[in-house]
Design brief:
Blueprint lengths: L4 H13 L8 H26 L6 E2 L5 E3 L7 H7 L5 E4 L28 E3 L2 E3 L4 H7 L5 E5 L11 H9 L3 E6 L6 H10 L3 E4 L8 H10 L5 E7 L2 H9 L1 H6 L4 E5 L16 E3 L5 E3 H17 L4 E5 L1 H14 L22 H5 L23
Helix pairs in contact: 2-10, 5-6
């Protein structure tokens, strides 16, 4: 069912005013999802137009887009998208920064600890001494990623497990905001066998010190890059520091489409938002920033990969993981982090005259404003 933008706005204004404990009826749900799909189609049309302007645009099996040298496409992303999936290893429940795009915004002090002496792997707690047993029982993963939250707050506790997994031939990458990196701990990580280090450069507005640490990391770790949510602040900061960033010799930039959840969505109130496949909610402009950067990268022949780590990419990631785990056809963990559609969050995009629906139709009888719709 198609719907006009005028009617879509009227219905979402109505739904936004409904009591939170009053569920939508079947016809109301049909209208709500029709509006969400209309917004999604319009956002995709805008991005398709941008993608068509990128010369030498490449793809990994139709699952993600990138520009730049094939050999520099991060192996961690290949494990995630094409391999047997990517296993997350969690330990550090603290961070030294407070970023407005963080999934844990406003709840940083409430993150539960993994437990002294433990790493969380696959939802189970393991000590470093358990790694040999784990490897002897389970099939070796294609890659692992150290996540949650800022590992460099206690980076010395990671060296041992990295060394053991390195000896087992497992590709490993780690995320950091880069503020606590130094020559000593970067050298230790390299000697332990870390394959890939990803700096969230947007967390510090492209700080000179962190750019310097990217340069330093390249001396000790085989693959070094940037992975940061694509925000307007990061795009502006990157443009200001472009020459410095290029001089580090980095291998890739993973441009993550900004993903909003109940913790951080309030920080982007008033922005044009859309929902991808009934799952992630993001600002319309986030992936558009990525595609514009990729166009410049391709036109200027940047010597590193610029990767479109979009909601579509993450959608493909979840399908790939379920497939490798033996899931049924169509099985995926893809879902929304919102229990209900946050109708008020979509009012700005419906009110924006510059955001046009691709196709509009009047609602059929029984679905129009003024009809008794349940």
């Amino acid at each position: 069912m198609k719907i006009s933008k005028r009617e879509a706005l009227a219905w979402f204004e109505f739904f936004a005013q409904m009591p939170g404990d009053e569920p939508l009826g079947p016809k109301q749900q049909e209208i709500a999802w029709a509006v969400i799909r209309q917004i999604e189609i319009a956002a995709e049309a805008r991005r398709q137009a941008l993608a068509e302007q990128i010369p030498n645009l490449k793809t990994q099996g139709g699952r993600t887009l990138y520009t730049g040298p094939d050999e520099k496409f991060p192996r961690g992303c290949l494990s995630c998208l094409m391999g047997r999936g990517l296993n997350a290893i969690r330990r550090t429940n603290r961070c030294n920064l407070r970023c407005r795009f963080c999934y844990d915004f406003g709840e940083m002090e409430e993150q539960p600890p993994v437990g002294e002496g433990y790493f969380e792997i696959g939802g189970t707690k393991y000590t470093e001494e358990d790694i040999e047993l784990l490897l002897s029982v389970h099939r070796k993963p294609g890659g692992v990623a150290y996540v949650y939250l800022e590992p460099f707050l206690e980076i010395e506790k990671y060296y041992g497990i990295i060394e053991k997994l390195h000896r087992a031939g497992i590709h490993q990458h780690l995320y950091t905001n880069g503020t606590l990196a130094n020559e000593t701990n970067l050298r230790e990580l390299g000697e332990a066998g870390l394959d890939e280090l990803r700096f969230n450069l947007g967390a510090t507005d492209c700080a000179d010190a962190v750019i310097g640490n990217i340069d330093l990391a390249k001396q000790y770790i085989p693959s070094v890059g940037i992975e940061t949510p694509m925000t307007e602040e990061f795009a502006e900061g990157f443009d200001r520091k472009k020459r410095q960033i290029f001089s580090t010799g980095l291998d890739f930039i993973n441009c993550a489409e900004l993903h909003l959840n109940p913790n951080n969505i309030g920080n982007y109130a008033g922005e044009n938002l859309y929902m991808y496949r009934h799952g992630y909610i993001s600002p319309v402009w986030s992936r558009e920033l990525t595609l514009r950067m990729m166009k410049t990268a391709s036109e200027e022949n940047w010597p590193f990969v610029v990767h479109d780590c979009s909601n579509r990419t993450k959608f493909a990631r979840d399908m790939n993981l379920r497939s490798k785990e033996g899931g049924w056809f169509g099985d995926s963990a893809w879902s929304s982090e919102f229990e209900e559609i946050p109708f008020e969050a979509f009012l700005p995009v419906l009110e924006d005259p510059s955001f046009e629906f691709v196709e509009e139709r009047e609602m059929p009888a029984g679905y129009r404003i003024g009809d008794a719709v349940y």
